Amino acid sequence: MDLKDKLISSFLAFENNIDVDHPIHDIRSEAIKNFEDKGFPTKKQEAWKYTSLNNLQKTDFSIFPKETNALEYKDVKRYFLHEIDTYKIVFIDGVYSSFLSETTHDGVDICLMSAALTKPIYKEVIDKYFNKVASKNESLTTLNTAFSREGAFIFIPKGKMPIKPIEILHFATGNEAALMLQPRNLIIAEEHAELQVIERHQSLTKNEVLTNCVTEIYAAKNANIDYYKVQNDEAKASLIDNTYIKQGDNSVVKVHTFSFGGKLTRNNLNFYQNGERIDSTMKGVTILGEKQHVDHHTLVHHIEPNCESHQDYKGIYGENSTGVFNGKIIVDKIAQKTNAFQQNNNILISDKATINTKPQLEIFADDVKCSHGCTIGQLDEEALFYLQSRGIPKKEASALLMYAFANNVLESVRIPELKKRINTLIAKKLGVELGFNL
């Protein structure tokens, strides 16, 4: 039985354990039909031209973990942003860990998706927001929708801001020879609300792990959201991350993605600007080695006039790694006065590394300011020689140049402790110790 058939048959068992009168029963049923029709994406599809899921489909993943390990905080402390106090929503092998978590309902709701989907108090919110911006056609998103049960639920009412950042952490412990996880997050910031979220998927095992995650984010009028994704996983961990963001008037949403490890990582990041004077920002730093593969697939849809979007992705690729950047900006006919910027710059530090980059613009308005571009190259030999002539060893000089290359992405991180943590991760990936922070 291949993975697609196993998932379809597993859905029947999944449904048997859930009341057919569940609020999203019909949504799940429609979603699994869509997945059954479409199946897994293939390289014949333009959006997946450079990323193959064939090897993953040959793996006998366990869909429902039989049991989970209890983790001690001291064993996973390094994966938390422990330098500061945060709210924490933690899952172990897909199951919520109350021991490692800190949630709240004090003026804001930072809790579990399973609670939001079943408790009558949240019915109005679920009816209004759940599965409204997520794609009904993208097969892996519909697969997640079919199995959506657990994840993070964050609701920030009008004018509120949590007193501290929020961490969403998913741990895989290796109880199964191969495990598939499908977390579902729903994040809502009402008018004038603000929040900061840090998301991490972390395997603690050498076993195969496949995470198919979907996050829906809604930023209402004048809302402000900072979202940080830290991806630095084990060699047999794969992540398919689907994030859908809908923004209202005057809202600001910034997503930073730091991809440093994992077998295969696919980031689908989709912004929909449903209002005026909106600001959408996507920034990313990717540093890969070995046979790692990262695919950044972005979309910004400018629907209304007087809005801005900024994309800036940096990639450093070594050994046999592969990078993909496929960014699309769509400007509708009425979206005049749009200011859209997209840039993808890459450094290849190995002759065997590969980067495939494809920035795209689809502009139907005539009064806009839009630009896109990409570069692929190696380190500047003259700059490298200059640093060496000042007594800096070649390895450290190369790292210094690569630090400078990534600096304009890091400078917009608004949590100092996270910025320092990312700075340390970059230094570790480059194999050096430098006496300064970006």
What does this structure look like?
- This protein has 438 residues and is an alpha/beta fold.
- It has 2 domains: 3-274, no CATH class; 380-438, no CATH class.
- The protein contains 10 helices and 20 strands.
- It has helices at residues 3-16, 25-38, 54-57, 73-76, 113-118, 123-129, 139-146, 381-389, 394-410, 416-430, and strands at 87-92, 95-96, 109-112, 152-156, 166-172, 178-181, 184-189, 194-203, 208-219, 224-232, 237-247, 252-261, 264-273, 279-288, 293-302, 308-317, 322-331, 339-348, 354-363, 369-377.
- Strands 2-1-5-8-10-12-14-16-18-20 form a 10-stranded mixed β-sheet, covered by helices on one side.
- A hairpin with a 2-residue loop joins strand 1 and strand 2 (95-96).
- Helix 2 packs antiparallel against helix 7 and helix 8 (381-389) packs across helix 9.
- The longest helix is centred in the last third of the chain and has 17 residues, at 394-410.
- 44% of the residues are buried.
